[in-house]
Amino acid sequence: MAAATSSIAPPLSCPSKALRTSKATSLAFGFVSSTSKSLRSLTATVPGNGTGSSLSARMVASSAVRAPVSLDFETSVFKKEKVSLAGYDEYIVRGGRDLFKHLPDAFKGIKQIGVIGWGSQGPAQAQNLRDSLLEAKSDIVVKIGLRKGSKSFEEARAVGFTEESGTLGDIWETISGSDLVLLLISDAAQADNYEKIFSHMKPNSILGLSHGFLLGHLQSMGLDFPKNISVVAVCPKGMGPSVRRLYVQGKEINGAGINASFAVHQDVDGRAADVALGWSVALGSPFTFATTLEQEYKSDIFGERGILLGAVHGIVESLFRRYTENGMSEDLAYKNTVECITGTISRTISTQGMLAVYNSLSEEGKKDFETAYSASFYPCMEILYECYEDVAAGSEIRSVVLAGRRFYDKEGLPAFPMGKIDQTRMWKVGERVRKSRPAGDLGPLYPFTAGVYVALMMAQIEILRKKGHSYSEIINESVIESVDSLNPFMHARGVSFMVDNCSTTARLGSRKWAPRFDYNLTQQALVAVDSGAPINKDLISNFFADPVHGAIEVCAQLRPTVDISVPEDADFVRPELRQSS
């Protein structure tokens, strides 16, 4: 539908008062057996004598790195804590079920929370909020709002939301009757329906987002949110099923859950920060860090196209093809690509950090790691750099909106919904491998794959760092969300399953950018390896000395002691996809 502008207020000229800004190809492989729950301080013997900036002579000098923006905030309900990450001070709020007693104070003045949508985040957030408020003995109603005739009504009823109890109803009635509206419909749907949504909101109510996409869409048209509502965000650093899975697992573990960022974009009455923090605590976030809505959508959309999904899809396709072409069996090639990344590598990074992956290797394995890392870093960074700038310029947001409209018949052309990717040879091999996989098997640690994956992770970290994102955002978006949320689900069901079933924006991004990573690795990195290009010693040296390792260690100390448990038959298919298939 065409977007009119009459009901949208002009852009605000001043930021929220709740936040204030201050600068502040070997076949040998090994296994990692450590199950430590906290990151250990690790050292590595640095090969060569390379020194230099945070990348190498090819990159700009370290003095040109933009200092990350650290957002301070005020809260009258929760305890704010200062942490130092890579020399920069940031502020967080730790979570925990012992804080649920403060939710009535955080949500003061709120009688109904409307959760709009039943996609990736909706089911998890609605259930977590309901359960947390019940534990807090609060009478705040959590109500689901859906389109009339939506097949998701049945899904919502199955987990206890009903029309009879006043906790399930029509989307527009729910918005009109809610003091806090959590808008969790797809990004494309938000872009097409924002005017009607705004017109149904009560004055002085609060709009809650779990993604900054809508702000980016409004900015692309020179618009902002209406002035008579507050706008906040709580953005879990994991997909909805992970948010719910860890919350349930952690009922006996205080604070178990998925980290979240929060932002206050607009605050009309001074309540916004406490409401957002209460929302995050109620979801079970172990710790919540501050960001801006703009920084969030840039890092999140970029991350989905990078290491969270698109880039992983691309590199495993590239490496599986290479390994099989060089004589490796299909089953072993799958284990040494997908299983290696989603299993052993992810668990090791989650509990011990990236350096532990390298230190777990034999001397020969370390050479293979260095070869792969050196050859892959810049080809990965090239695509990541382009991707970030496309997101920042609004190109990716526009692409998602237009793609959403192509899902339906339009202008005499047929509908083109996203097709499945799981019928090709690699993913059929994956089905076979998972069927015969022993319970609890995390797969091998294959040095070459490890080098490529860690190079990708470090390249993404460096792009976000150069663009001025906080270390909390960098680490959660590039490391924690990957190894603690998405990869465990991909280990259970396969990368292709995730590409076919996660959020619309992420699925679109993966399909668009995965081939770019595949081609760049194949055409640049692997060609360099085959031609005997020397290892970039400065690049390897900078990897070992990078301050991000210490920052990850601090974040790992805030990590709950429970690992996400995903059964092999884990069902996290979005309702509309399950119905259509």
UniProtKB/TrEMBL annotation:
Residues 93-291 form the KARI N-terminal Rossmann domain. Mg(2+) 1 binds at D300, E304. The keyword Repeat does not apply. Binds 2 magnesium ions per subunit. Keywords: Amino-acid biosynthesis, Branched-chain amino acid biosynthesis, Magnesium, Metal-binding, NADP, Oxidoreductase. Coiled coil: none annotated. The keyword Oxidoreductase applies. Transmembrane segments: none annotated. It comes from the Eukaryota. It is an enzyme of class 1 (oxidoreductase). It catalyses: (2R,3R)-2,3-dihydroxy-3-methylpentanoate + NADP(+) = (S)-2-ethyl-2-hydroxy-3-oxobutanoate + NADPH + H(+); (2R)-2,3-dihydroxy-3-methylbutanoate + NADP(+) = (2S)-2-acetolactate + NADPH + H(+). Pathway: Amino-acid biosynthesis; L-isoleucine biosynthesis; L-isoleucine from 2-oxobutanoate: step 2/4; Amino-acid biosynthesis; L-valine biosynthesis; L-valine from pyruvate: step 2/4. InterPro entries: 6-PGluconate_DH-like_C_sf, 6PGD_dom2, KARI, KARI_C, KARI_N, KetolA_reductoisomerase_plant, NAD(P)-bd_dom_sf. Substrate binds at S362, S503. Its cofactor is Mg(2+). Mg(2+) 2 binds at D300, E477, E481. Residues 292-440, 441-577 form the KARI C-terminal knotted domain. Its EC number is 1.1.1.86. PANTHER family: KETOL-ACID REDUCTOISOMERASE, MITOCHONDRIAL. Homodimer. Belongs to the ketol-acid reductoisomerase family. This is Ketol-acid reductoisomerase.
